[in-house]
Amino acid sequence: MASTAEQPKTHDFAGDEHQHHEFSPILSPEALAKIPTEHSTTSNGAVSHKTSSTLRKTRSALGLHPDAPIAEEDDVHERQQLLWSKVKVVLREPFAEFWGVVIMILFGDGSVAQVLLSTGQTTAPGGNGFGAYQSISWGWGLGVMLGIYVAGDSGAYLNPAITFSNCLYRQLPWRRFPMYFIAQVLGGFVGSGIVYANYISAIDWFEGGHGIRTVPPAPKATAGIFCTYPQPFVTKASQFFSEFIASTILMFVIFALKDPSNNGVGKSDKWFPLALFFLIFGLGACFGWETGYAINLCRDFGPRLMSFAVGYPSEVWSAGGYYFWIPMVAPFCGCAFGGFLYDLFIFTGPSPINTPWLGLKHLFFPRYALKARRERHRKAKAEGLV
Amino acid sequence: MASTAEQPKTHDFAGDEHQHHEFSPILSPEALAKIPTEHSTTSNGAVSHKTSSTLRKTRSALGLHPDAPIAEEDDVHERQQLLWSKVKVVLREPFAEFWGVVIMILFGDGSVAQVLLSTGQTTAPGGNGFGAYQSISWGWGLGVMLGIYVAGDSGAYLNPAITFSNCLYRQLPWRRFPMYFIAQVLGGFVGSGIVYANYISAIDWFEGGHGIRTVPPAPKATAGIFCTYPQPFVTKASQFFSEFIASTILMFVIFALKDPSNNGVGKSDKWFPLALFFLIFGLGACFGWETGYAINLCRDFGPRLMSFAVGYPSEVWSAGGYYFWIPMVAPFCGCAFGGFLYDLFIFTGPSPINTPWLGLKHLFFPRYALKARRERHRKAKAEGLV
Amino acid sequence: MASTAEQPKTHDFAGDEHQHHEFSPILSPEALAKIPTEHSTTSNGAVSHKTSSTLRKTRSALGLHPDAPIAEEDDVHERQQLLWSKVKVVLREPFAEFWGVVIMILFGDGSVAQVLLSTGQTTAPGGNGFGAYQSISWGWGLGVMLGIYVAGDSGAYLNPAITFSNCLYRQLPWRRFPMYFIAQVLGGFVGSGIVYANYISAIDWFEGGHGIRTVPPAPKATAGIFCTYPQPFVTKASQFFSEFIASTILMFVIFALKDPSNNGVGKSDKWFPLALFFLIFGLGACFGWETGYAINLCRDFGPRLMSFAVGYPSEVWSAGGYYFWIPMVAPFCGCAFGGFLYDLFIFTGPSPINTPWLGLKHLFFPRYALKARRERHRKAKAEGLV
Amino acid sequence: MASTAEQPKTHDFAGDEHQHHEFSPILSPEALAKIPTEHSTTSNGAVSHKTSSTLRKTRSALGLHPDAPIAEEDDVHERQQLLWSKVKVVLREPFAEFWGVVIMILFGDGSVAQVLLSTGQTTAPGGNGFGAYQSISWGWGLGVMLGIYVAGDSGAYLNPAITFSNCLYRQLPWRRFPMYFIAQVLGGFVGSGIVYANYISAIDWFEGGHGIRTVPPAPKATAGIFCTYPQPFVTKASQFFSEFIASTILMFVIFALKDPSNNGVGKSDKWFPLALFFLIFGLGACFGWETGYAINLCRDFGPRLMSFAVGYPSEVWSAGGYYFWIPMVAPFCGCAFGGFLYDLFIFTGPSPINTPWLGLKHLFFPRYALKARRERHRKAKAEGLV
């Protein structure tokens, strides 16, 4: 396609960038198919003509956009001869998500570790431990903020449920999901492992003996450093609702912050990481008690697996009435609902909610959905993106 | 009018945007009438020619500006065929205010709930509950900040008293007030309802039994989560003064932050949400003890109604010597006074205070006021805005 | 003067704006005299041709720049007919300083009042009072930040010692000093008076009886709400040094933040208020214990006078070994030293320190100083500024 | 060289500024040699033609770039006649680093002093001392932030390990290192000395007698104000790991924040100081317990030397099993590793890691490294930089 040759694509982390395009009205599947799901300009105007066809195929097979989000001057022919540089190009977004999640977990789990293990220590300056509950709000808030800075090249979702909502409502291709998911969960596993390694002697000291590892509600339990355990009085329904509502708020506000047609939000993304700090801090200070505001599968399941692997007993799974599945499932439901609410009431850009029957026509008339899907596939093929 | 046809209007959320216009001197009612109370450019330069005449009439009947603040590319013909999209266009500003207030209340009331209900819990990391009084300053501060991001398309007043002051001093048409008021109070009701739903099992646990609900100064009262109750030693006059002075500061600083001729303030609005975080945080840390800094009818009355509806006893109204009316009335007085002070001493733009007799000529010479009013009406009609 | 007619002046709040000019090298008094101490562009490019000659004379008599820092469109002929508008133009900078200091004191003293009076109250959410020492750091930090936003049109010094240093090192004319000083001290008096009025019933309750007012180190003293009293173990020398060093840091960092040739600082002033929040917060958290970090005559003397006026006993003056003079004198010494250090080691723009003998030639060779002074006066006269 | 004459150099603080250049691909030593390690534009576009050849030689002898980072208008001929102005030009970067570190240490050590010495004081507002552990996170975070503002003209490393990593991965010439190192350590010594002078009477009071000075784990030890001492239960390996991992995170995130090709980071440096506040706050809240997060030789060794000099016993060296060498060595290892990780997984610009064998070819084939080195030397000579 001639126009494609003139406008080679570089990256496709949906969300904000998509919205800078002029969207055609979304009414018919034909129109829907015209939405530029794969777009082209890097933020500094440079475009890459160079990604070799082998790399493109490999990336495409992994579910990523054929072209890596790398500025042209950094992606030259010679560099591509280096094996590791090739790997780096192929796995650019997964690497970004992975390290973003690692940074987030390091600060988040690290703050819980420091506050929990030093509880009431009288030798601390101030005489009452090295931090208070609020330090944990700080830790997760700034962990997410710095993680977003680190993971800029992948869209910085840092949360499978947010990737999920972007697939659902913001035209992020579904085939991106698995690779992102793997990178995020791995990041949670590795990040919490580093925290464990750092605090291993302190955990021994706190639990009262080398190798003793207990899970809440044991009195000296340290498993709560890594993943969340609910308060004992909270019913199963309240557990789910608490995670659900926090995830709903998370997605609703993120969609507002990423909505360029919303006059309350700066046109640039510069304020986004700071706003996320306040958002996550707020969720911790306001909805963080009952279930520990996991609101993120990779932040809860990854570290839970890690803690089980390094020797915590099987109560990591059974505690709280096999609570572990709630922070895996509720964030997806909550984020989907939060995105739904935002698109239903405020968003005016292209979203399934802004199509006939609030998008349900796609559900109840499979032919209609199939037609829209085929249109998009045809278009993607024409652009050489399969 | 030819010039109107060339400059179609899109939105009119007064305050900052009005002030970007070149104002003519305000001295005579004729001059006053020339002030562009209804203005036109969307922030990205796009203008909407498309809002159908039915929609315009409906919006006008609701007291809103005939044209919705929606960017042209998002408001095309086809979309307008969808029933829900029409509703969305008609109720754009009420929806924005509603959700802005919901987000504000979720974080604000949520922070009080978490701190109050977990008071002194020794199993918390740090051993002393899941937050302290300062968490509440954080909650309200960042709730307002994020609410402003969400409610950008309506002006993000989030407070009837602030809407009121903008009508009084900043040429926001009075007919906008009722619709904004309804949306704001509803937002308070719904937002606090969600907080109640989230913490219902924790409230049962804290109060000491299923369905027990008490109001301060009962020892285990939880009604204070939703709306404000004064300290017992504060006299009625001090109650009123405390709410009054906090509202005065609120309005004074907001007018300073929105004053484009004030050299201390950036020309863009990007810093506004963050500055509001500090302002609300400060009011909570400095004027939040005696009466709980309601400073907002919709933040206090909405949740109070909700708490009464879900089963709190009638003390929600009678507590503190029927205190409930103070956070309904004092914010209006305080914000009006704060705006008056700012316009009297600092503001040099168009304000009734900057007219003869500090605007009192309008009061004492009805003919003068009538003349100014008729001028404005005539102008509005000419622009097809009635 | 032809060039003056073409470049009419509007405002002259020194500091940052001065530095945007291209300075000529400072070596000889002639060169020094060429520095544009009175400058012209308003930040939005508008200039005022209109300030009437009567107003100019009145302003000049008060020590202010003949032209008020008001954008042209806000300073039209008709408005000038209104008496109050004339007053507003004449007293623009004093009004700005006054209200800036009022806002600063409201939040600063308000935070001390709330924390002190509610110490240990178990009915608070969290069970331990309505704030902690850190709330006071927040209060003063954000009070200064919001005060700067409010007082943008006067330079927002909010502190006589900082005005003093700007006269000394940054060519702010000395005749500005008295008017600014009066406005600042009045602001301190009024601001603390409002805090007293707001907390009067709480003070009665805390002191243990109507009208009882005590001064530290009395066990239930409340005088510490308004002005600073030193810790009992601190020697006089340490008292002075503590105020001195905090003022030095204050001025050193402010000069760095206002230095446009310093590559660490953004060229715009947008970050300045936020950076000041951190600076003041830091002084409170790091140098706020021994003497209460007054670092500001108007913040300490104004409220001290107010507290004496409303009935606190004469210990407000005698406490701490007649400590009251230290926060009056030390900030001037400290700020002068801080400015000296910055100019000596880092500043490369026009400063007396960057002249022969580090500016001491002016001191030891009166003829040299006189010559420079006469040059500047002649130039000012030529521009019609006397 | 003609082109050099046309493009005279002014400053060379590597890191961000280097990266704004268009880098040639790094594959061969020849290409590597072409990297503009010494660059030219000052941030406001001005360039200095004036630095005299004597000054250039002196600066070069000190290991600094021959041209000082001073805007042309500030570096005129006449000024250069003044002895002190010459010194200021010669020592520009060392002065900047020195004062940046002084500011950082003043706030950092100051916050520890205030919290530690006032622990549990019941006369404080709030009744529990003048700060809590979190104040220390604030102190170090904002100290670094303000230090970066002050030290803008030197690159604001404020940490020998960060300078080291910039030499290793970002083409900062190694000959810069010694001068920076000296300035930084001196800054640590002087800054902590000022804190000691300020709190000397409080330290006497806290230790229980004039001149008594003890080191942790003594019950009333105050040596912990100035430098770090590990928790007693932490093994030597954990001590090292804790400092190592915190330094790794520090460098990894700083490289991300300074990477212009990372889409998560704003193109301007304006957000950098604020992001560093959050980063340092986070390290204090999450990795600050076991060893006190020195992560910086000059922040730990400088104050340790000072405390020994003013009379603390020799336990300052022997405490914690001669722990003192760990915060000297571990930060270098950690920062080197953090930079390695960032360059390995994310950075696509010019870095040794992005050369054959991840840069190890330079290690194992000395001839290859020598060739690259000679190329760079030849180029530097041609530009008159030796």
How would you explain this protein's 3D organization?
- Chains A, B, C, D: GO terms for molecular function: glycerol channel activity; water channel activity.
- Chains A, B, C, D: It catalyses: glycerol(in) = glycerol(out); H2O(in) = H2O(out).
- Chains A, B, C, D: It holds the Pfam family MIP.
- Chains A, B, C, D: Its main location: membrane.
- Four copies of one chain form a homotetramer.
- Chain A is mainly α and 386 residues long.
- Chain A has two domains: 2-90 and 360-382, no CATH class; 93-345, Glycerol uptake facilitator protein.
- Chain A contains 17 helices and no strands.
- Chain A is globular and about 65 Å long.
- The two termini of chain A are 14 Å apart.
- The model of chain A is unreliable at 1-49 (pLDDT under 50).
- Chains A and B meet through helix 7, helix 8, helix 11 and helix 12 of A and helix 5, helix 6, helix 7, helix 9 and helix 11 of B.
